[in-house]
Design goal:
Length: about 475
């Protein structure tokens, strides 16, 4: 039985072909594994390929279908996960050298279990920035993940391998994490779709943490429907994660085709235009035109929110890694180590002030959603910088690349709002836009994303190989 070209077929199409007997899960997985073995030499997306496990799982799916049993909405769909997810039989690296000495995980992350229960097939673990403290996708231990649109350029981070693997046609679905922008930045630089759900929506147990009060998990895909399918499969409460909210799942895949007409959408001005490169402004303006948006809105104190997010990130991250810093400092990426050490020295009064501001800021931003249903803003200030690039000019000032790729994402994840990240296929490189909604309204963000996708204003461009 011949497989569809899983390099570029949507996950939904693959699942229908497998469930309908047009192909087999085994054939799909063999195609995916071959693609990874040849193409990933250039992209460096994967740190481990679970070929034997994937083949066994595909055979199980085919056996179920042969018996007339349903295989799930993601039947036979290959997916991979950022290597901070627990994968049974693999050490959970979190992009680090230190974790390589850890024992292999005994169980899969709950989100992996949920995707596989929906019929998806795990094919491996993906490259990432060390301990998720990164916006570039450049890992000093495993080498940088590379942008499929130009392998001399960054993928963005810290979920760089996830963005690269999806953009490069290695897998139709991948999972990443987003603390300050680590789903939205790679989505932007690699030109794919992503979803950072509401804080507390998806359980994070079974993953290596970074900043507990900011960490989110979510999917990458090459179209909105696939993002929605993956998100729906992963929803559900898990009491092992103290931040996970006990809330009924809200299936969004059946809702995304509803018209976005009548939704009140505004463009973020002020802070979210300052410093943006022309391509970032053009991307937002294209979407504003496609949606006929006339209103501009200012998110209050966004710059201060970013500063407070830095304080909380540095101090919580430092507290998590303090013993490793004391005993294994030389095994860290020096750039990560030095920021964690600096975080350990931030006075407690600054942390208290940051948390107080966080509560004030969240209340002010939520007020905005009484008058609008969604806000659009750039995901990154620019398209993908070159690998190794240290600085760029923002608003006439030379600034370091690594922290400032998250310029527009940090003020949003700081208060846990859901965001659909959508790619605008500019030439020569794509760039992303955030569709920001009120808490628990992932459906609104994805409806708008789907409406834009239908017009062609957003799309995941296929890279030249």
């Amino acid at each position: 039985m011949a497989a569809p070209d899983t390099s570029w077929s949507p996950a939904g199409d693959i699942a229908r072909a497998v469930s309908g007997g047009e192909t087999s899960a085994a054939a799909v997985i063999e195609t995916a594994l071959k693609r990874i073995s040849t193409r990933d030499k250039a992209l460096n997306s994967f740190t481990a390929v679970t070929a034997e496990r994937a083949r066994a799982r595909a055979q199980q799916i085919d056996a179920h279908i042969a018996k007339g049993q349903k295989a799930g909405p993601l039947a036979g769909v290959p997916f991979a996960v950022k290597n901070l997810f627990d994968v049974s039989g693999l050490a959970t690296l979190a992009g680090s050298k230190i974790n390589r000495a850890h024992a292999p995980a005994k169980n899969d992350s709950p989100l992996i279990e949920r995707l596989e229960a929906a019929g998806a097939v795990l094919v491996g673990a993906l490259n990432m920035g060390e301990y998720a403290y990164d916006f570039t996708g450049e890992n000093v231990h495993d080498g940088p993940s590379r942008n499929p649109h130009d392998t001399s350029r960054m993928t963005g981070g810290s979920s760089g391998g996830s963005g690269s693997a999806v953009a490069g046609g290695l897998v139709p679905l991948a999972l990443g994490s987003d603390t300050n922008g680590s789903i939205r930045v790679p989505s932007s630089l690699c030109g794919v779709f992503g979803l950072k759900p509401t804080y507390g929506r998806l359980p994070r147990n079974g993953t290596f943490p970074f900043v507990a009060s900011l960490d989110h998990l979510g999917p990458f895909a090459r179209n909105v429907h696939d993002v929605a399918l993956a998100y729906d499969a992963m929803q559900g409460y898990d009491g092992e994660d103290a931040a996970c909210v006990e809330r009924a799942p809200d299936s969004v895949a059946p809702q995304i085709a509803r018209s976005a007409d009548g939704l009140r959408i505004a463009v973020a001005g002020g802070y979210f235009r300052k410093g943006a490169f022309p391509e970032a402004i053009e991307a937002v303006e294209r979407l504003a035109k496609a949606l006929n948006i006339k209103r501009e809105i200012e998110i209050p104190e966004a710059a201060r929110a970013r500063a407070a997010a830095y304080v909380i990130t540095a101090t919580e991250g430092a507290a998590l890694h303090l013993e490793r810093l004391r005993t294994q400092a030389r095994d860290f990426d020096p750039a990560v180590r030095d920021r964690l050490i600096a975080g350990a020295m931030i006075p407690s009064i600054a942390v208290v002030q940051a948390q107080k501001f966080r509560r004030w800021y969240r209340a002010r931003v939520l007020e905005l959603f009484k008058d609008v249903d969604a806000i659009i803003a750039p995901s990154t200030p620019c398209t993908a910088p070159s690998l190794g690039q240290q600085t760029f000019m923002l608003d006439g000032v030379e600034l370091p690349v690594r922290p400032n790729l998250g310029l527009y994402t940090q003020p949003i994840s700081f208060i846990g709002l859901p965001v659909a990240a959508v790619p605008v296929p500019l030439k020569p490189l794509p760039i992303g836009v955030q569709i920001i909604a009120a808490p628990w309204r992932e459906d609104v963000a994805l409806r708008i994303a789907f409406a834009l996708e239908k017009t062609g204003a957003v799309a995941a461009p296929r890279p030249a190989e």
